[in-house]
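Retry 2 of 3 after timeout on previous attempt. Resubmitting structure tokens to design endpoint.
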């Protein structure tokens, strides 16, 4: 089951320009990391996009991380939360907290996925091309030591 909650856009790290077209398409630039890449032919930007995954040092076979997705969702934030809660319920995931306004949402949840007891903290906002979602993830046993760092990163998610 794929949980529909996870994202973090790094300010000034990803941009698209016509000038960097090596293969005839728009390159996606990651200035902070010093590279650009043209998506493969047939790439559908209207589909869910995993934009970035940032890993902390791993322990116990799992590396706590923050990842960012852009999801092709065009409803309200309340509708997004309802879809997410339905997925949580069907997947045995427990919602721990929820805070939202008309454009943003922050939630915390925990549960078992692929045999691993996990803990998540996510922030989402509605954007012109869908929903941007940053999610911090750690094993439940790592949450106490990793949560402050993960939360700070997730909470930094902002539209440009």
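Retry 2 succeeded. Sequence:
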């Amino acid at each position: 089951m794929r949980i529909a909650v996870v994202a973090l856009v790094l300010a000034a790290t990803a941009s698209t320009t016509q000038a960097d077209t090596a293969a005839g398409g728009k390159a996606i630039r990651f200035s902070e990391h010093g590279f650009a890449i043209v998506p493969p032919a047939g790439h559908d930007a209207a589909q869910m996009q995993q934009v970035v995954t940032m890993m902390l040092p791993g322990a116990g076979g799992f590396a706590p991380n923050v990842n960012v997705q852009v999801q092709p969702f065009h409803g309200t934030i309340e509708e997004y939360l309802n879809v997410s809660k339905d997925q949580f319920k069907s997947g045995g995931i427990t919602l721990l907290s929820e805070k939202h306004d008309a454009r943003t949402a922050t939630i915390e949840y925990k549960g078992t996925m692929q045999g691993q007891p996990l803990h998540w903290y996510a922030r989402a906002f509605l954007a012109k091309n869908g929903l941007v979602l940053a999610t911090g993830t750690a094993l439940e046993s790592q949450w106490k030591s990793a949560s402050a760092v993960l939360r700070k990163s997730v909470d930094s998610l902002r539209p440009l």
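Attempt log closed. The CA atoms of residues 7 and 134 lie 2 Å apart.
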